[in-house]
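Most newcomers find our protein records easier to grasp once they have seen one. To make this concrete, we reproduce a full record directly below:

…
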Amino acid sequence: MTSHRTAAHALAGISALVLTVGFLSGCTPEPDPTPTPTAAFASEEEAFAAAEEVYRSYTEAVNLERDGDDSVDPLGFLVGEALDGSLDTSNKLQSQELRIVGDSFVLAFTGQSADFPNGEGATVTALVCLDVSSTVVLDSSDSDVTPSDRAGHVPLDVKFIDSGDGLRISQSELAEAAAC
């Protein structure tokens, strides 16, 4: 009879333990919900406005750098192909002992498309009309070697991507079919 009582007590103890664990797990608070990512932009218009601000700031930084301001970094606005292209152009100009002087201006900025899924990986494309008529290319003797057939207004297809801390210019190429 002692073995039956011992077994009964053991079974009762195990049952109590199982019930207690079950009861306590039911009282465990639910984990905090993780926030659902929200879109970086509420609308296309907002995305276009942000991209335009980036491009205008980039153009201003380029102008300031040309004027000798060492405190600006136009490359900070660029990533990917745009960054590579800018570095290549700088290297070519330097190797040929050429420099560009004068300011460029954004005449028009027209948003073309904006995609901002799940708050990450936003992309924006735009047509930019850049006025380069006030810029000239100078050689090492400060002679103007600007190509005579260079247009004063340049239409550009520009792509922006979200770099995690804001939009950056990722691509910029001549918009062959567009005019400014």
Observations:
- Residues 2-39 have pLDDT under 50 and may be disordered.
